[in-house]
Each structure stands twice: as structure tokens, then as C-alpha cells.
Amino acid sequence: MQDPIDTLMAEHRIIEKVLDAMELAAEREMPVSFYERALDFLSAFADGVHHAKEEAQLFPVLETHGIPREMGPIGVMCDEHVVGRAHVGRMREQLRLGRRGALCQESLEYVALLRQHIRKEDEVLFQMARQVIRGDDVRRLAGAFDEADGHKDPRAAYARVAEALLAEARTA
Ligand SMILES: [Fe+2]
User: What is residue 24's three-state secondary structure?
Assistant: First the structure.
């Protein structure tokens, strides 16, 4: 059993590779396919795998331990997930319209949002989580994560996608 907070942190490291790739891409002439794959990664992994586990599994457990949602760290994290999804939606739109400059600008705003979001989770919220989630709660949350992931580890495949995007941006 992998510690559930370790699982979320490992997912952050994978997401950061794509943020690195997008930052490099903004300075280069990347093909449309790069952005299509990056946006699919963000929707499927950052949002569909990672934020989904935080929102549906982790945050409710933290609330039962007295960490507030309204006017508290959980509400802030959820609000930032919503803002991130809006950025991804606008990036898809800019890509569809072929507006490269606006796409790069939007992607850099997304990267800045996600970097500070991940830092707050790693350094504050997840440290609080480690303090309050103990014993059986750890095992229950790990089981819930496993179920949410469909009883398979989605990280290895998405890590390969992230590596490929970063390699492509580095060599462009
Ligand atoms: Fe996260």
C-alpha cells in the first residue's frame, strides 16, 4: 500500500513535467499536436485522475478532521481547480482558432497558477493531512484512491506522456 499523500505528491511531480514542457513551448514554435497532447494530459490526468481524487476522496476526509472548506484551505484549492479548468478550456479554444500568442499567454498563466497551487498543497495542506489522517484512515484513503484509479496505477503511463512532452519541448 502506498501512502495516499505520497501518491498525490508523486502525481504532482508528473504534472510539473508538463508544466516545464509548456513553459519551454511558449518560447518555441511547437506543432499543434504538442498542445493537443498537453491539453489531453491536463484534462485526463491533472484533472481526471489527480484533482478528482483530491476533491472526492481527500478533501472530505480532511473536513471530518476539522479542516474547513468555506473560507479555508479546501475551498481555496477547489476554487483554483475551477480556475485551472477554465484556463484549459480557453487554451483549447485558442488552439482551435489558431491563436498561438494567446494560447502561449494562457498556458503561462495556467503554469503559474498550478505551480503555486501545487506548492501550497505540498507544503501546507498535505502536511496538515499527514498530521490528521492516521492509522485506519490512511488505509481507507489508500483503498479509496485505488478504487478511484480503477484498481490500476495510471501514473506510469502518464509519466511517459509527460516525459515525451518535455523531451519534445526541449528539442524543438
Ligand atoms: Fe494537487
Answer: helix
CATH number of this structure's domain 4-171, picked from the four choices 1.10.3720.10, 3.10.450.50, 1.20.120.520, 3.40.50.300: 1.20.120.520
29 CA to middle of ligand 1, Å?
29
Query: Which stretches within the chain are classed as H helix?
Result: 4-25, 32-41, 52-53, 59-64, 73-97, 100-120, 126-132, 136-148, 155-171
Distance 119 CA to ligand 1 centre (A): 9
pLDDT tens track for 124-163 = 999 999 999 999 999 999 999 999 999 999 999 999 999 9
The CA 53 to ligand 1 mean position distance, Å, reads 9
Q: Ligand 1 centroid to 36 CA: how many Å?
A: 22
Please report the pLDDT score of residue 59 as a whole number. Answer: 97
The amino acid present at 97, given as its one-letter code, is L
